[in-house]
Amino acid sequence: YMGQLPFKLYTIMKAANQKETGLKGPKLILHFDINKTITLYDTGQGMTKEQSLCEVLVGYSWGRLEAKEPGATPIWKLSHYTFSMLQPAEGLITYKDFIASQNPLKTKAEEPALEVRNQYNRKIRNQMRQFFFVFFNPGNPGAKLKNEYEKVRKALNLPKVVLDDLGINVRGDGQAAEEVVPGGSKDALADLFFDGKFFIFPSFFRTMLMLKKAKRDFGIIFRTFGADSMNVVTEFNRFCEGTHPCYNGKNNFPLARFDGSKGSKNFILDQSHVGVVHRSPNMSEISLVMGTVKKQNPTQTQTLEDAYTKELEEKRIKIIKNSDQVYVSMLEMLKESSSLGWIDDYLYWKRNDEKQLASKFMLVDQSDYNILQIFFDESINDTDRCIADPRDLMDGTPIPRREALGKYIITCDTLKAITDPDYFLKLIDQAEKLREEEINQIEKGVEVEKAFEEVKDEWEQFQSLPEDEYLRKTIYPLLYPALHSVNLERPDDPIASIAMYMLKYKHRVTLPTKPGEPPQTAQHGEEHANPEQHSPAAQTQLTIHLPHTASNLNAHANIKDTKKAPK
Fold this sequence. Notes:
The protein is α/β, with parallel strands linked by helices. The chain has helices at residues 7-21, 49-57, 95-102, 114-133, 146-155, 160-166, 188-192, 202-213, 229-241, 304-307, 309-313, 323-336, 346-351, 401-404, 414-419, 423-443, 448-453, 458-463, 467-474, 476-489, 494-504, 525-529, 536-540, 553-557; strands at 24-33, 62-66, 75-78, 93-94, 216-224, 274-279, 286-290, 318-321, 339-343, 360-364, 371-377, 388-392, 409-411.
C-alpha cells in the first residue's frame, strides 16, 4: 500500500483523474443495510410493511412516565406530538423503550444457551409487537399521532398508474384487497408490491440517479443479516434494466439505465456477486464465500473448504480469505459490476451477545484518499451495540466510533428515508465534508487521533449541529410551553404572546458563547424573586407537557384575534 499521500499531491491526482474520466470527487462505496434502511418488508420476522412501519414509529413517539400515586406502576403518556428520532426534551422516553423496559430480553450472561435464549427473546419480541401494532388505534396511547402516522403511511403508496399496470387491487382506503397475497402473481415485482406500497424506498433510487447525474463514481453493497436480499435483488435489477414501472420512462416517470448500455456502468447484481460472510473467533479475520446466499457453518474441526465441498466441486462458489484479500476482491468485483450483496454472519453476532466487534464489518483503507466508504444502518449508534464494525485495513483494529460516526458509519433515520427524497444524498455530502476535513488535518501534520481528542470550539460545535438537534436545543424547550400557554389563555394577540413568553424565559436556554463576545449570564432574578407574577399557564407548563405538532404551527399563526370571555 502506498501510505498516506500528501494532501497537495492528492488534490493534483484527483483533479487529473476527474479531467481524464469526467468523474467528480472520490469513489463512493455505499453499504446499505436492507431492513428499516431502504425497505420495510421484513420477511424474516413475518411482518407486513405496515407492521414494520408501526414498529419503527413507536420508537419515534415520545412521552412521559406518570404514576397515579407514589409506588404505583407508572404508565406512559404521550407528550410530544410529532415523530422524532432524537429525544425532543429531557425526561422523555419512547413508547418502544417503555414497552421494552417492561419486557426485558435475556442476555448471554442470564442465559448462556444460545438456542434457549433466542427462543425466549423471540417470544418476548412478539409479545411487544402486539402493543406496537395497535399503538395508533383509537383508545391506545398513540391515538393522537394517528394523523401523523397516516401521512407517513401514504408516502409509501405506489402511484395508481403503477398499480393498474401491475393489476394490483387496492381498496379505496389504501389497504391491499384481502384476496391479494404475495406469490400469487407471475410478475415478481407484483408480489413485492402486492399491498400497494413501495418495497425499496424511492430515496434510495433517487440517490443512484442523482449520483449518476453528478458524474460520481460509486458502488453499492447491500448488507443484511436476514433472508430478504433476493427480494431486493429482484427490484434492484429491474430498476437497473430500465423496466421498473416507476423508472421506465413512461407515464412521466424518469428512465433509469444502470445495465452497462449506452456507456453507463453495469450495476445488475448476478449470482456471482452475492455471498455470505464468515467471521472467525478472534473477530479480526474475515472470509467471504461468493456465489451463494446459503450459508454452511463449519464445525469446530472443519475448514470453510470442508463445509462447502459440494459447491467447490461444482465450481459454483469462490472462497476469499483474509481481510486484505477480501478488500482487494471487493474493489475488483465492483469493477466488474458496481453492486454486491453480502449476507453477514448473524449467528456469530448472536453468539457474541450482539456486540459491535462481532457485527457487520467494513474494511477501510484510511490512507486511500480516493475512496470513501459509507455504511448506512438504522441500528448504528454510539454504544457497543452499534451494528457496524469499521476496521482499519492495515492492522485490522476497530476504528473508534467517535472517528467513524457521520463519516464511515451513519445512523439511518427510517422516517426521513421514507419521506425525504434527498435524505441519503444529504448524508453523503456531510460524510464527504468530514473526510475532507480529516485529510486537511493530516496535511497540516495533525494526528487524527489527537485531532479527535481535542474538543472543538463550543460555538463551532453548536453551529454544526444537525437541524433537528439544533432546534431541540434552542427553540423547542420554549416553543412548546409557549404554544400551550397560548392555548390555555387564548389572548387577543397570540403571536405577540408567544414572542413575549419566549423572550421572558429565554434564560432557560443556555447557548455557548460566540468567540469574541462576553459569556452569557443567566438572569434568574425576575423569575425567582416574584413567582406570583407568573401567569397560570406559565406555572402549569412546568408540570403539564402538551406540545403541539409542527404541522399545527400554521394553524396557530392563522388564529383570529378574539377577546377572552370574562373570568
